[in-house]
């Protein structure tokens, strides 16, 4: 299965775009900064924009432990899958730049 990685900025942007029919089999959202961050996650059908009709997580707080880097949230893991059509996307925004990364594993279907 292929893997993609992306940094999350304060502007809603793509962290994964489906090429053809794909299934996300694993997605991890990690706070690597020494500050708390909140994340918004959208699953956006091709041709649409991120908004209230396709938000799946809002205000997901990724905390830190003192001065150490912080939380990791697994959005899709185990037997869960998100099925996407061509050019469907997962988009995210965080409350801080240079704080959050996303690792996505997917497979063609």
Structural Rg: 14 Å
Level-2 CATH architecture: Sandwich
Number of domains: 1
Overall residue-averaged pLDDT value: 92
Task: Write down the CATH topology.
Answer: Jelly Rolls
Outline, from the CA principal axes?
A: globular
In this structure, how is the largest beta sheet organized? Answer: 5 strands, antiparallel
Class in CATH? Mainly Beta
Instruction: Provide a count of the helices.
Output: 0
First-to-last CA distance: 11 Å
Low-confidence stretches: none
Number of strand segments: 9
Strand content: over 45%
Structural class estimated from helices and strands: mainly beta
Order of helices and strands: EEEEEEEEE
Specify the helix fraction band: under 10%
Walk me through this protein's architecture:
By secondary structure, the protein is mostly beta strands. The protein has a single domain (3-108), classed as Jelly Rolls (Sandwich), CATH 2.60.120. It contains no helices and 9 strands. It has strands at residues 3-8, 13-17, 22-31, 37-44, 55-62, 72-76, 82-84, 89-94, 100-108. Strands 1, 3, 6, 7 and 9 form a 5-stranded antiparallel sheet that branches. 27% of the residues are buried. The model has no long low-confidence stretch (mean pLDDT 92).
Question: Tags for this entry?
Answer:
5-stranded antiparallel sheet, Jelly Rolls, mainly beta, 109 residues, 55% strand, 4-stranded antiparallel sheet
């Amino acid at each position: 299965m292929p893997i993609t990685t992306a940094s999350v900025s304060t502007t809603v942007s793509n962290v994964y775009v489906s090429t053809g029919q794909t299934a996300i089999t694993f997605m991890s959202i990690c706070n690597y900064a020494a500050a708390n961050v909140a994340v918004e996650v959208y699953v956006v059908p091709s041709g649409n924009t991120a908004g209230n009709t396709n938000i799946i997580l809002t205000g997901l707080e990724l905390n830190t432990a003192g001065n150490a880097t912080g939380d990791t949230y697994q959005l899709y893991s185990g037997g869960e899958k998100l099925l996407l059509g061509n050019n469907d996307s997962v988009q995210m925004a965080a409350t801080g730049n240079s704080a959050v990364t996303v690792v996505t594993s997917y497979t063609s279907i």
